[in-house]
Design a protein that fits this description.
binds magnesium ion, Rossmann fold, binds guanosine-5'-triphosphate
Length: 281
């Protein structure tokens, strides 16, 4: 077990203050979450800060997640009273729907106004979830810097959407302590936590534990296993052997196996996977 994953560098504390300061200036908050971990990727600090402010939840990276679960989670968040959209910021799927929704909110805001005011919104979420990619989709150009690692955006950035809409990109933030260790693991699996502070072999072992229960067939198919091991470690060793990740003297290369499985999970090469299910009511 990986104990106490923690990553709360100073810039996240600053971002928290930035969100707080700018909240009164915006009409709307767009909370971007990761469709593979819809519960773990909801930051309780953001939830607390945003409070009753109008909010749209974007279930991003929906292309990497289980399509059935995307539907179930969208429904769940709707029932909680949120506006929800499943998106893929790589292909742009869902972007037009989001723009239409934003235009509707903008027009409602200006319904009785003598002078039209722009709709101002803030994009918030955990690191690496696709906030800047979403902004680039909305602006239709590369306005914000993106990258395949957490902590790419630093400082705030106001952008003009042109059609009387303005948005603020913010750096991804986490929170100081994950009460539930599974939340820390889920965030680490999905790349929201800096890989440099993680032990990739142990992380892989934890991921296999989850996949063995949630998606056993996918795991077997991807790694051409006729059966899973008795333990996650056994399965990891079977994968290593299948792939030939063996060091001199016949020792298993856990590091390389770990990196491979984690990478293949993150790119959905193993399959479309959602790690968390909606809790039954
Ligand atoms: N498959 C897939 N990848 C995505 C999607 N959206 C973003 N990405 C990728 O996810 C990575 C992170 O995207 P960013 O837009 O930089 O994420 P961010 O939330 O701004 O990250 P920080 O600024 O570090 O907090 C990049 O490699 C993107 O290409 C999506 O919908 N699907
Ligand atoms: Mg960013």
């Amino acid at each position: 077990m990986i104990e106490n994953i923690n990553w709360y560098p100073g810039h996240m504390k600053k971002t928290r203050e930035l969100i707080q300061e700018n909240l009164k200036m915006v009409d709307l908050v767009v909370e971007v979450i990761d469709a593979r971990i819809p519960s773990s990727s909801r930051n309780p600090i953001i939830d607390q800060l945003v409070g009753d402010k109008k909010r749209i939840i974007v279930l991003n990276k929906s292309d990497l997640a289980d399509a059935e679960e995307n539907k179930a989670w969208s429904e769940f968040f709707k029932q909680e009273g949120n506006m929800v959209l499943a998106m893929n910021c790589m292909s742009g799927q869902g972007a037009n729907q989001l723009i239409r929704l934003l235009e509707k909110i903008r027009d409602e805001k200006n319904k009785d106004a003598a002078r039209k005011k722009p709709l101002r919104m803030m994009i918030v979420g955990i690191p690496n979830v696709g906030k800047s990619s979403l902004i680039n989709r909305l602006t239709g150009k590369k306005s914000a810097k993106t990258g395949n690692k957490p902590g790419v955006t630093r400082g705030k950035q106001w952008l003009n959407l042109g059609n009387d809409m303005q948005l603020l990109d913010t750096p991804g933030i986490l929170w100081p302590k994950f009460e539930d260790p599974n939340v820390g693991l889920n965030l680490a699996f999905c790349g929201a936590i800096k890989d440099e502070i993680l032990d990739i072999a142990t992380l892989c072992l934890e991921l296999i534990k989850v996949l063995q229960v949630r998606y056993p067939e996918m795991l077997m198919e991807r790694y051409k296993l006729t059966e899973l091991g008795e333990t996650a470690l056994d399965t990891m060793e079977l994968i290593a052997k299948k792939r030939g990740f063996i060091l001199s003297g016949g020792r298993i290369d856990y590091e390389r196996t770990g990196k491979t499985v984690i990478d293949e999970f993150r790119s959905a090469t193993i399959g479309h996977i959602t790690l968390e299910q909606v809790e039954p009511y």
